[in-house]
Amino acid sequence: MVKQVFPGVYRFGRDFATKSQDSKRVYGERLKRTKGGVFRVWDPHRSKVAAALVKGLNEFPVKADSNVLYLGASSGTTASHIADVTGGLVYCVEFAKRSMRDLYQVSLRKRNMVPVLADARHPWEYNHLVSCCDVLIQDVAQPRQAEIVLVNSNYFDFREALLSIKSRSIDTTRTPKKIFDEEVAKLEKIFSVKQKLLLKPFEEDHILVHLVRK
């Protein structure tokens, strides 16, 4: 039986899913077919946002009309589910040209996905392409992950953010907990932390943080 747990996010037993726009797979995910439509199972092994849902994310900031800025969209796996949830635009910033080729192909089908080839550390290079932004989602394997959120907050007025922090991208010599605490402390200058979730066993040494602008 399908149950809506957040606007646009559904649950089939232990599986989370989004309602497909075109009844087709994007990355080989399983499909659930019901009288209400076709739903794409959101794989927590392929998406940190899905892993956070499985681990008990209390609130989902993306609504039916949200415009989303997605930093580190890669080939569009998670962004495609976000595009299912919202009728607004999902601006997908990706730096790697190889990933951008795949992302572009996904965006041809998900018409509310806007691929942007740019460096998430330099929002001044793409702020003219983003008309408005309600939610930021970030999954960027860079050393200064908190700083990327902060510099983007100077250019975009997003109210909430979902940030994936990968400790090994910052420092492999210190404990992940210490790194997580330091990154979150930087963010607390302008954000309140609604929730922090360890993503193990889906991702090692990762947390997802739900932030709300003060």
Describe this structure in words.
The protein is of the alpha/beta class and 214 residues long. The protein has one domain (43-213): Rossmann fold. Helices cover 26% and strands 30% of the residues. It is built from 6 helices and 12 strands. The strands form 2 sheets. It has a 7-stranded mixed sheet with strand order 8-7-6-9-10-12-11, sandwiched between helices. Strand 9 (135-138), helix 4 (145-153) and strand 10 (160-166) form a beta-alpha-beta unit. The model has no long low-confidence stretch (mean pLDDT 94).
Short description:
The chain is of the alpha/beta class and 214 residues long. The protein has helices at residues 48-55, 77-85, 97-109, 145-153, 167-170, 176-187; strands spanning 2-6, 9-12, 15-19, 31-34, 37-41, 68-71, 90-94, 113-117, 135-138, 160-166, 191-198, 206-213. The protein has six helices and twelve strands.
List low-confidence stretches: none
- What is the CA–CA distance across the termini? 39 Å
* CATH arch. level architecture: 3-Layer(aba) Sandwich
The gyration radius over C-alpha positions equals: 16 Å
**What's the level 1 CATH class?**
Alpha Beta
Level of helix content?
25-40%
State the total count of DSSP E strands. Answer: 12
State the order of secondary-structure elements, H for helix, E for strand: EEEEEHEHEHEEHEHHEE
User: What number of domains?
Assistant: 1
Strand order of the largest sheet: 8-7-6-9-10-12-11
- Overall average residue pLDDT: 94
The third-level CATH topology is: Rossmann fold
